[in-house]
Amino acid sequence: MAGTAEQKLAELGLVLPAPAAPVATYVPFVRTGALLTVSGQLCFAQDGTLSHKGKIADFDLGTGQQAARFAALNVLAQVKAAVSDLDRVVRVVRLGGFINSGPIYPDLAKVMNGASDLMVAVFGERGRHARSTVGVAELPLGALIEVEGLFEVE
Fold first, then answer.
1. Within a domain: 18
2. Which residue blocks in 3-60 are alpha helix, DSSP H?
3. pLDDT of residue 78
4. Domain tally for the chain?
5. C-beta separation of 147 from 40 below 8 A
6. For 2-12, what is the mean pLDDT?
7. What is the pTM assigned to this prediction?
8. Which of 89, 107, 116, 140 has an alpha carbon 20 to 30 Å from 74's alpha carbon atom?
């Protein structure tokens, strides 16, 4: 039976995708003690294809936030693979967001809110986290966004 966190996802009309396989030489997550670090996850859709490719300037803010939400769902899929139950998350400690952008795009933080808002919607106060958001020249596979996470888990 799905726990509270997965029930919240269902209420939002969201389903966790299958955890994505690494696209290079790294592991999708590392756990040490109560800390779980999830490698950067791209904005893969349910069917395993990238939901959004290209530069953020080619999209409106809402579409960028949707891509961030897809990437965050992929982060949560890795968390579930690591600890088997999202309800074992004690705290979302930190998210890092990398957005495929040109030299000037003032709303990077607003784009990343798509990922941050999802964590709060799923985990409540335990989902509030520290965060960094960075505009980058390119991302793997031409993805629009990549999100990584650090979690305290039981």
1. no
2. 4-11
3. 98
4. 1
5. yes
6. 90
7. 0.96
8. 107
